[in-house]
């Protein structure tokens, strides 16, 4: 099962404490990845976990705390449990895992529904699916990049595959930051401009929403990415 603070944690508006932790201390990390790691750090994955697209050398591996951990990846350098090619059936056991986790992987798979069905098959009944991926974000091929599905696509597709209790949380800092990232930040002084946008969005959030817990509901359509959790029927 996934025991998570996600909904309450991400409903907060941007603030200086989060700014310092996420962006001042992680200078070489993208804004989206910092937001994803924030979620993962506040998410306890219980039971047997399959990481689809991960491995022992994944940069986020230290944030995963669970009973047991196995993984699949196309790259042996990441040290997954199984090395698989894109589009191959998963070699791991069926109806076995309590949680399937996948970070920044689905957008690189052309037949995403097939991959999602394979993950669904590997889960126990009532097992949990946890996924983080980009939405309003530049194309980045690894080895290719195919799509940016909306929240509506995820809701319909996961329901059709056999998931329930689907919760989709937008990951973003604010409208100026999203616009800057989508542009690819051409030109000089990228780091200065990035932090300027982050601070302006912080000010906008404070003036527009105060201490409201509905910030992401208001600006969710500007999400850099999503964090999705669902349960196998």
Main attributes?
233 residues, alpha/beta, Rossmann fold, 7-stranded mixed β-sheet, 8 helices, 9 strands, globular
Q: Work out the strand percent.
A: 15-25%
Stretches where pLDDT is under 50 for at least 5 consecutive residues are: 1-11
Overall helicity:
25-40%
Number of strands: 9
Morphology: globular
CATH topology: Rossmann fold
Radius of gyration: 18 Å
> What is the CATH top level name?
Alpha Beta
Q: Which helices and strands appear, and what pairs or packs with what?
A:
Layout: E1 2-4, H1 6-10, H2 16-24, H3 31-41, E2 43-45, E3 48-52, E4 68-73, E5 82-83, E6 97-103, H4 112-122, E7 123-134, H5 151-161, E8 163-171, H6 175-183, H7 190-209, H8 215-219, E9 225-232
Helix pairs in contact: 6-7
Describe the structure.
This protein is α/β, with parallel strands linked by helices and 233 residues long. The chain has a single domain, classed as 3-Layer(aba) Sandwich (Rossmann fold), CATH 3.40.50.150. 35% of the residues lie in helices and 24% in strands. It contains eight helices and nine strands. It has helices spanning 6-10, 16-24, 31-41, 112-122, 151-161, 175-183, 190-209, 215-219; strands spanning 2-4, 43-45, 48-52, 68-73, 82-83, 97-103, 123-134, 163-171, 225-232. The strands form two sheets. It has a seven-stranded mixed beta sheet with strand order 5-4-3-6-7-9-8. The protein has a two-stranded antiparallel ribbon with strand order 1-2. Helix 6 runs antiparallel to helix 7. The two termini are 13 Å apart.
């Amino acid at each position: 099962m996934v025991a998570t603070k996600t909904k309450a944690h991400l409903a907060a508006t941007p603030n200086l404490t989060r700014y310092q932790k996420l962006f001042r201390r992680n200078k070489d990390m993208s804004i989206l990845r910092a937001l994803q790691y924030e979620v993962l750090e506040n998410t306890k994955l219980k039971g047997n976990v399959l990481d689809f697209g991960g491995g022992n050398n994944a940069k986020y591996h230290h944030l995963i705390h669970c009973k047991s951990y196995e993984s699949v990846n196309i790259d042996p350098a990441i040290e997954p449990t199984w090395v698989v090619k894109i589009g191959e059936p998963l070699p791991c056991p069926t109806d076995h895992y309590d949680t399937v986790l996948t970070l920044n992987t689905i957008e690189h798979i052309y037949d995403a529904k097939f991959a999602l069905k394979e993950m669904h098959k590997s889960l126990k009944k009532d097992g949990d699916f946890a996924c983080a991926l980009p939405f309003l974000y530049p194309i980045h091929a690894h080895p290719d990049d195919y799509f940016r599905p909306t929240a509506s696509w995820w809701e319909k597709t996961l329901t059709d595959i056999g998931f329930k209790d689907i919760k989709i949380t937008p990951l973003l800092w604010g409208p100026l930051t999203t616009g800057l990232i989508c542009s690819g930040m051409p030109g000089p002084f990228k780091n200065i401009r990035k932090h300027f946008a982050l601070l302006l969005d912080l000010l906008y959030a404070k003036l527009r929403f105060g201490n409201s817990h509905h910030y992401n509901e208001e600006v969710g359509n500007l999400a850099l990415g999503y964090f999705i959790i669902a349960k196998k029927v």
